[in-house]
């Protein structure tokens, strides 16, 4: 059982590692000690993220055992989601877990992009010159003058 579990752990990190390349490390990454394929495996794997609660919720909604670990348990800025593999997991289970974490990160990146684009549009609209629409009665009417017949 222990050999199976350690093989699953190695498979998980090996499967996940290349999928993390396009994702900002602050959003989702393996800790530095797990970035090498020569690291001894462990069934408890931290997924580093600046958003541990949303990632944990997304994974747990899929029935996966993933718990947010935040300050004061870990130093500020070192938040993570703890993934615990067990001997009952299959290779397909750990691949599904890796894919779900990556999909969550991609969705977060897409959401951030949409928010940035919306902010740019608002900024561009604020920068557009405003056209003055003349009021009825001409320029003097705006100043309170009334045209009269002499």
How would you describe this protein?
- It is a single chain.
- By secondary structure, this protein is mainly alpha-helical.
- Helices cover 47% and strands 9% of the residues.
- It is elongated.
Indicate the topology.
Elements: H1 2-19, E1 44-48, H2 52-61, E2 66-69, E3 80-84, H3 91-127, H4 138-142
Antiparallel strand pairs: 1-3, 2-3
Compute the separation of the termini in Å: 107 Å
Query: How many helix segments?
Result: 4
Structural class: mainly alpha
How would a crystallographer describe the biggest sheet? 3 strands, antiparallel
- For the secondary structure, the number of strands is 3
Shape annotation: elongated
Average pLDDT rating: 86
Rg, alpha carbons: 28 Å
Q: Percent of residues in helical segments?
A: 40-55%
Low-pLDDT segments, ≥5 res: none
Strand order of the largest sheet: 1-3-2
Portion of residues in beta strands equals 5-15%
Summarize the helix and strand pattern as letters: HEHEEHH
Summary tags:
single chain; mainly alpha; 3-stranded antiparallel beta sheet; 150 residues
Structure, briefly:
This protein is mainly α and 150 residues long.
């Amino acid at each position: 059982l222990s050999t199976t579990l350690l093989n699953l752990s190695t498979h998980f990190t090996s499967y996940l590692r290349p999928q993390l390349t396009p994702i900002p490390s602050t959003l989702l990454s393996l800790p530095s000690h797990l970035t090498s394929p020569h690291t001894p495996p462990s069934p408890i794997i931290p997924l580093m993220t600046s958003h541990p609660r949303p990632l944990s919720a997304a994974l747990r909604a899929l029935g996966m055992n993933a718990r947010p670990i935040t300050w004061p348990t870990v130093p500020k800025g070192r938040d993570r989601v703890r993934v615990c593999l067990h001997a009952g997991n299959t290779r397909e289970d750990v691949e599904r877990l890796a894919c779900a974490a990556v999909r969550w990160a991609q969705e977060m990146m897409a959401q951030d992009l949409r928010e940035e684009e919306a902010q740019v549009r608002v900024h561009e609209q604020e920068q557009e010159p405003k056209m003055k629409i003349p009021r009825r009665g001409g320029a003097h009417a705006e100043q309170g003058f009334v045209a009269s017949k002499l």
